[in-house]
């Protein structure tokens, strides 16, 4: 059944461009208006004009706050009173915990063992209750279902939730507005890239870009060790239960069913990079932009550098998704790029 044009967005709806605009209005004054960063030396290295949306400077250190805050802000009093539950390796959990604290709502986060210390501590710092689970997606889902049954809480899934996708799409909408159309009538960007994991950010990015101008290409970037999104879209069926093996801890979730459908609808292509390429791109961002991002955030730049011919002479937008890196693990990470 088609949703009434102004009916509240539900978790299982199909998000539209109008929902992203609504989310942008809802988040005004709540989420940070993050800057767009430029580097002439990176432009020269990539052979194109790069515009970096600095979502690592977002509240809680990642774009995830946009989706979490949009979902929580739309809860009625009865659902809010029961509390909110999610599963997260870190960034979404911390963002949801912050959004819930700002609204006086109880929050429980199911966190896989082995999640980076900095992300686990961020969740706890915002006052959420942490419930441990194993790394496999099946165990994440099972423990989340158990907690929901025990608490009667509202599930705010990190990516398979229309409210979250609409909120994540505001980053690209904001980016495109900050750049503005070119004098010859062409769109602000020729292409926009975001990392791909569960698919919430990339889905929202594609909806926002194509809603503004269908000529903008929306591309995803994914680690080779967590390529279920690439293989799912290439094969036409969503892959389940494949273990992820990547240092990009924010990109280990498997592609969700709602994002899978949206990415197919928007014909999003996925570019793959190795962990070494991702860490090398992260190092470049640190060196040239003078800003700290995590490996997951550097995957799109790694894809541009790996496929220079595809982007030559174009205006390219990249969402720097997060900056929550475990500094204790940094020496081992940087060794991968040597």
Architecture (CATH level 2) name of the largest domain: 3-Layer(aba) Sandwich
Mean pLDDT equals 94
> Share of helix among residues?
40-55%
- Beta-strand content: 5-15%
Tell me the distance between the termini: 54 Å
What gross morphology would you assign? Answer: globular
Q: Helices and strands: which structural class?
A: alpha/beta
The fold-level CATH name of the largest domain is Rossmann fold
Uncertain ranges:
none
- Sheet with the most strands? 6 strands, mixed
Our Rg estimate from Cα atoms comes to 18 Å
CATH class of the largest domain: Alpha Beta
How many domains make up the coordinates?
2
The arrangement of helices and strands along the chain is HEHEHHEHEHEHEHEHEHHEHHHEH
Q: Quick one: how many beta strands?
A: 10
Number of continuous helical runs: 15
- How do the strands line up in the largest sheet? 1-2-10-7-8-9
Written account of the structure:
Helix 3 packs parallel to helix 5 (about 90-105) and helix 9 packs parallel to helix 11. The protein is of the alpha/beta class. It starts with 16 loop residues before the first helix and ends with a helix. The longest helix has 18 residues, at about 160-180. The chain has helices at about 15-25, 40-45, 65-75, 75-80, 90-105, 115-125, 135-150, 160-180, 200-210, 230-235, 255-265, 275-290, 295-305, 310, 330-335, and strands at about 35, 50-55, 85, 105-110, 130-135, 155, 190-195, 215-225, 270-275, 315-320. It has a 6-stranded mixed beta sheet, sandwiched between helices. It folds into 2 domains: about 30-60 and about 165-335, Rossmann fold, CATH 3.40.50.1100; about 65-155, Rossmann fold, CATH 3.40.50.
